[in-house]
Amino acid sequence: MPTRARVSDFVDAVVHGDHADAIALFYTEHASMQENDQPPRQGRDVLIAHERKALSRIREIRTHPPHVVLIDGDQVAIHWTFDAVGKDGVTRRLTEVAMQIWSGDRIVSEQFFYDTATAWQSVAPHDDETDNDRA
Description:
With 135 residues, the protein is α+β, with helices and mostly antiparallel strands. It has 4 helices and 8 strands, in the order ααββαββββββα.
């Protein structure tokens, strides 16, 4: 079961843009990730490679501090908002809920839930001031 501090460390790593490093530091060797109802990706090395490839297709990713982080034993739910700035300069947003299963201080499995009809729509640029007021 993860401690609140450990989950907070994970959230901080993601918010500060260390997405692939967060996978290396916070996921088990055989962890899985699943997009909505798609087949899961398996294995930490596969997850890291997938994340790096996704990040290479954009100029920048900005992660808003989570709206909600719920911890119930080994289950964690995080309500994320990501702004991806494309190489074309357009900012697109994804709002999702990540449902995680932890074993000790590492994530074993994670499934993302989001509305595919509204995922990655163009938005105004991310406003750090607004998010810092919420944190």
